[in-house]
Design a protein that fits this description.
By secondary structure, the chain is α/β, with parallel strands linked by helices. 47% of the residues lie in helices and 15% in strands. The strands form two sheets. Strands 3-2-1-4-5-6-7 form a seven-stranded parallel sheet, sandwiched between helices. A six-stranded parallel sheet has the order 10-9-8-11-12-13, with helices on both faces. The chain binds uridine-diphosphate-N-acetylglucosamine (UD1) and uridine-5'-diphosphate.
């Protein structure tokens, strides 16, 4: 069997690291990088650090408005599909690369498999929500990480070829944890922080970075925590902070985005994770680190229900107070599968 997999953004490289390995043992996989993320710290570092085969095709699309970026990807992916005529197109998550893949394939009658299908924030102002809804409705195989995702699809009338498989991110996290345990990265020491005595923070959602009131509410909270904050800065947030000329307190260490193993080490040793990232909410849960989420809703509702994640939005006082007082639940039930999800996805594709 021949498959084309589409990746383009940081979390997709991490997800593909789990599934590509499995697919390549069984089939011919053509890995297409749309070029949505292109800085070394946002792209190459994951191919190097996660032993992902280099992309067979890089469309080099780069940044742009949603329409421009998605259109360029659509054109490029269609060319690859017409040339390769694969049996499946595999897409991950909810980025513009996901949407372009789903659209291109469905127009030329290539079946689409969506990894991480069925997630919903029910916030249609979020570009990712549009991408998810469209991608799911165009998909022929829907690989869901949770019961909630399966139910969300049923509510939209999608019931055929829907499978509860779990989350491929747990597969790769388990691999990374073993690596980190065998060869602990020096990053925590290098940054001069002590395990369990700092906050790890990330911010990149458009709703936060593109709204000065929200972003300044969040950054003021970082400065008011009275605790070291390690802040690997997404280029989208870096640009806004630089342009606005904001200066952060010395307790906040703004660093470049880091590779996955460094991130797993930083997250695992943090006292609290403070983030608007989807992936990091789950990783914090799996690593047993309380998470304070800088959003008003989440797709990963089970982490909130389990008592390990709390939604705080962007209000400075609410963030500070929650980071200081949040006590997670005593138990932490297994969520999002058993860490053998890639093999299950590959079986279903077979
Ligand atoms: C994208 C996804 C989001 C995902 C995130 C993961 C969409 C709509 N959004 O958001 O779902 O959570 O990736 O990180 O697809 N930039 C650089 N260098 C890079 C990449 C981006 O400087 O290598 C800057 C550019 O100024 C660009 C901005 O970041 O305009 C936003 O990048 P883009 O890929 O459009 O969206 P993300 O915010 O990264
Ligand atoms: N991540 C990383 N380095 C960083 C920031 C994040 O490796 O500097 C990882 C993080 O651990 C998670 C994934 O990137 O696995 C999440 O990506 P992101 O937050 O960009 O996107 P989202 O998950 O919100 O779509």
């Amino acid at each position: 069997m021949k498959l084309v997999s589409i990746v383009g953004a940081r979390p997709q490289f991490i997800k593909a690291a789990a599934l590509s390995r499995e697919l390549r043992q069984r089939h011919k996989e053509i890995l297409v990088h749309t070029g949505q993320h292109y800085d070394y710290e946002m792209s190459g570092i994951f191919f190097d650090g996660l032993e992902i085969p280099p992309p067979d095709v890089n469309l080099g699309v780069g940044s742009g408005s949603h329409g421009n970026q998605t259109a360029a990807m659509l054109r490029g992916i269609e060319d690859v599909l017409l040339l390769e005529r694969p049996d499946w197109l595999v897409i991950y998550g909810d980025t513009n690369s996901t949407l372009a893949g789903a659209l291109a394939a469905s127009k030329v009658s290539v079946p689409v498999a969506h990894v991480e299908a069925g997630l919903r924030s029910f916030n249609r102002h979020m570009p990712e929500e549009i991408n998810r809804v469209v991608a799911d409705h165009l998909s022929n195989l829907l690989l869901c990480p949770s019961d909630t995702a399966v139910r969300n699809l049923a509510t939209e009338g999608i019931g055929r070829n829907v499978h509860l498989v779990g989350d491929v991110m747990l597969d790769i996290l388990n691999w990374a944890r073993r690596r980190v345990a065998e060869h602990p990265p020096e990053i925590v020491e290098r940054l001069g922080v002590k395990p369990k005595s700092y906050v790890l923070a990330t911010v990149h959602r458009g709703e936060n970075t593109d709204d000065p009131a929200r972003l300044s509410g969040i950054l003021k909270a970082f400065a008011a925590l009275d605790e070291p904050v390690i802040f690997p800065v997404h280029p989208r947030a870096r640009r806004v902070i630089t342009e606005a000329g904001w200066r952060l307190s010395p307790d906040v260490q703004m660093i470049d985005p880091v590779g996955y193993l460094d991130m797993v080490a930083l997250a695992g040793s943090a006292r609290v994770v403070l983030t608007d990232s989807g992936g990091l909410q789950k990783e914090a849960y799996w690593l047993g680190v309380p998470c304070v989420t800088l959003r008003d809703e989440t797709e990963w509702v089970e982490t909130v229900d389990a008592g390990w994640n709390v939604l705080v939005g962007s209000d400075t006082e609410k963030i500070v107070q929650t980071v200081h007082s949040f006590e997670p639940a005593e138990s932490r039930p297994a969520l999002y599968g058993d860490g053998c999800v890639a093999a299950r996805c590959a079986d279903l594709l077979d």
